[in-house]
């Protein structure tokens, strides 16, 4: 997948919002290392997230 395609498919793991071009956080799952993206709103509200690969949940 190209970088442009990857940016277009990024979505918040908590709410599903397309986060391309927004102030979103990108980090690796503490358990398995899968890349996770969260939008600014979900980060600010401390919404729970779940890793799509291993099921790890965090605030």
From TrEMBL:
Domain of life from the UniProt record: Archaea
UniProt signal peptide: none
Domain spans labelled Small zinc finger protein HVO-2753-like zinc-binding pocket: 12-55
InterPro entries per the UniProt record, alphabetical: HVO_2753-like (IPR044720), HVO_2753-like_euryarch (IPR049683), HVO_2753-like_ZBP (IPR011668)
A Pfam family that the UniProt record links to this protein: HVO_2753_ZBP
Protein known as: RNA-binding protein
């Amino acid at each position: 997948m190209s970088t442009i395609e990857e940016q277009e498919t990024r979505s918040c793991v908590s709410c599903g919002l397309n986060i391309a071009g927004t102030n979103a956080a990108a980090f690796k799952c503490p358990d398995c290392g899968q890349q996770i993206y969260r939008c600014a709103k979900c980060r600010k509200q401390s919404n729970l997230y779940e890793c799509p690969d291993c099921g790890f949940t965090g605030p």
